[in-house]
Amino acid sequence: MTSKRNNNKKNTQNKKNIEISITSLPPKILVRRIILGVAFIILIFAIVSITSKCRMDRLNSEVPGLPSFMTAEMVRAALKEQAKNPNNWTSVSLAQIIIESGFGNYGPGGETGNGLSQLAYEYKNLYGIKGTGPEGTIDFRTGEQTLEGERYEITAGFRVYSSYTQCIEDRTKVLSNTQYYDLSLGTTPEAFVENVLYGTWATSLSYNSSLLAVMSEFNLYRFDTMSVKEFDEEIKNNN
Q1: The total number of structural domains that make up the chain
Q2: How far, in Å, are 116, 140, 186, 217 from residue 66 at the CA level?
Q3: Fewer CB within 10 A of the end CB, N or C, for the chain?
Q4: pTM higher than 0.70 for the full model?
């Protein structure tokens, strides 16, 4: 009992000491500490809120599992192009969109870096295709890379389209009607990346590895065995 009483006395004394230490603080310091404490709590809530919004923006897509800037129109158009030529893999086409135009500052999600590039959003050019398109051409600064790995910038004219579908259809024409590409070598998605696009589509030395990483990260391979009808059913069931 004596031990318990002693503990109670210690606890009472500690409380009194705390009360004295708080009340003995000058009013200005006390107010400042309270303000700092409230500000810290507000900051924590703000960080959590922004982080949650960024995560939601990144995956809040029309198509489950894809980044928010990817639309059903893009997937549907890519599926139709693969239906015309089985070697024109949808997974590769979608990966190129993500690499070339994704996580930009334009369109929905752009305020958090989960939108499209300006070229893609305003001019519907999803693949960075140079030249004159059905709707004309627009000049942009663009980064290039030498075989030695040195980076540099140039101003180039890029094709302008009226829709994402028109751009995706034109990609097929570029791949089919030029001397640089041979779709017959793209017997698998990986073979398409290595044998059709390597050293021709982009100057970036890491372009191929980036495509393969994105195809795996977002499981884009699942679209390679999907028909347009099956895709539409999936979208319908998820809405």
Answers
A1: 2
A2: 13, 27, 24, 10
A3: N
A4: yes
